[in-house]
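User:
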Amino acid sequence: MIQKPDIGGMILHHTADSHVLDFDFRFLGLGKLEFHLPTDWVLLGINVSPTKHVVYLAFAALLVFLTMWYGGRQVVKRHREGKAPRGFGGAIEALVLFVRNDIAIANIGHGGAKFAPYILTLFFLILYSNLLGLLPWGATATGNLAVTAALALTAFVTIEVSGMIALGPKGYMKTIVMVPPGMTGIGAVVMAVIMTPVELIGKIVKPFALTLRLFANMTAGHFVILALLGLIFVFGTAHPIVRNGVAVGAVAFTLFMMGLELLVAFLQAYIFALLTSVFIGLMQHEH
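Assistant: Predicted structure:
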């Protein structure tokens, strides 16, 4: 009796974190390589051993550095020659200017240029992390709640600290203890009591929403793709006509979903950078 493959296990193996890096080249007629990461790194009583998602996140960070470094060198070289940027350098310059001008400065407003490096880092790090998950042996670090929560935490700290600096202690407290302009007396006290918890919840919800949105979108696509491919094995013992029909349909929908995931990879990086810029802008300008 032919044993059906564990589709659920395959999906969880691809999306879950682990201490093993596996590179399966059997589709090329080669073998399967496995690298076991250390599991006994302890710092101050905390296990800080690297995992698969940590490795791919570090690789994404390296790709961001190499992209900026090489693209910047090409742009500088073309400018030195008195020519307009082109090729890889021109593409990176266009993307950087788009994120800087149309995402950071356009949504933060006055003083937004100083936040552009941070927004650019978020955009490219998330983009590369998303794209690495589309490789056959890759892993999506942004499909890990710990990673998206850490990114959202940096956004939360940037939003609140920059707001406190821009507004001053008194102005910043107004973003917590909210009293409508012109209201005084007992009405002001009642409004402050009612609205203060609401404002505090609003501050917490922003990074929480950033965390879940990125995590859910990057995980859901992989589940759908792997589930569609799994249909081929589920119907592996069916009638040839049914089996072939399911295989063709599954492959067609998988290719469509892969194209959609490529779009989602860019879109989620854009949305995270955009919302972070909007939240910073809301805190920077009291009016």
